[in-house]
Design a protein that fits this description.
This protein is mainly alpha-helical and about 180 residues long. Helix content is about 65%, strand content about 5%. A three-stranded antiparallel β-sheet has the order 2-1-3.
């Protein structure tokens, strides 16, 4: 599968600037188009303030596939738009953007953050019992590393984040198996 994807990507990137809209990957019945990928590349080039290498473009296509799967899986999960806006604002203030780019990137980030927040909510719902943190272990680490009590909440959040990431990646890999991902030439 990976070899087919790599061969397809080499072929595809030679013809990336074509004017026609065409599907490049299908995830079940949902298409990812050349325009989706061009937009993804353009936004990332604006944020990174440089041209992307072909290897980075391949990663972006894989990210679009992952995002499409997560979007399908979380279509029934509701998330408050204001919390998404808050997170987007936090991210955007890390970039020095002109007015034209600001609106495009805000919309782009809103969609990305919304999918990510819905996915994290799904993970929390499905695996809430597995997200419990061993407080004895935290307190032991605090004593060993001589960390004061003020950092305890920070350590708890770090441990929860680690667990969520592990659970999320494992669950995603399980879910991905049920999808037909097809490259289109």
């Amino acid at each position: 599968m990976k070899i087919v994807l790599i061969l397809f990507l080499f072929f595809f990137f030679d013809h990336l600037k074509a004017n026609e809209i065409r599907s490049i990957v299908k995830v079940n019945n949902y298409s990812i188009t050349n325009i989706d990928l061009i937009k993804e590349i353009t936004i990332n080039e604006i944020l990174k303030k440089r041209k992307l290498a072909d290897s980075e473009k391949k990663i972006l296509l894989n990210n679009l596939i992952e995002e499409k799967i997560k979007k399908i899986e979380t279509n029934k999960i509701k998330i408050d738009a204001s919390s998404v806006n808050v997170r987007v604002s936090q991210i955007i203030k890390n970039y020095n953007l002109n007015e034209d780019d600001h609106k495009k990137i805000r919309e782009y980030l809103f969609n990305k953050v919304e999918i990510l927040m819905k996915w994290n909510k799904l993970i929390a719902i499905l695996f809430s019992k597995k997200l419990e943190i061993n407080m004895n272990e935290i307190e032991e680490n605090m004593k060993i590393k001589k960390i004061d009590l003020e950092k305890k909440e920070e350590m708890i959040e770090m441990e929860k984040t680690k667990k969520i990431n592990i659970l999320s990646n494992t669950f995603y890999n399980e879910v991905k198996r049920k999808y037909l991902i097809k490259n289109i030439k």
